[in-house]
Amino acid sequence: MARIWIVNVAGHDFSDARRFADELIPLTEGRVNIFNVKALVDEFKTKMESYEKEDWLLLSGSSVINIVASQIVMEKHGELKLLIYDAANRSYIPRDINMKQISSPGGIIA
Known about the structure:
Layout: E1 3-6, E2 23-26, H1 37-47, E3 56-58, H2 63-77, E4 79-86, E5 91-98, H3 99-103
Parallel strand pairs: 1-2, 1-3, 3-4
Antiparallel strand pairs: 4-5
Helix pairs in contact: 1-2
């Protein structure tokens, strides 16, 4: 069963994300030291060992921690299922990215 990995929990309402999976797993909470990238990579690799291909990554917080989490998933599975918050509609929008899209001349535009 798919799970949702939340990159950063900082008081947002994630209830709409439950349309995609029931289990929410926070990777970080509140303020994060984004300047010690090596420590973030090590921490995320350990926390995300059980990340499965069908899981979702919910983008939240600093771009640095979102990049680290995304890259770990791409390295592990070659693809990434994202949940991106659409503030205008107050809902999460699913998007998929895979290595073929990134390495192809057409790029990753959905």
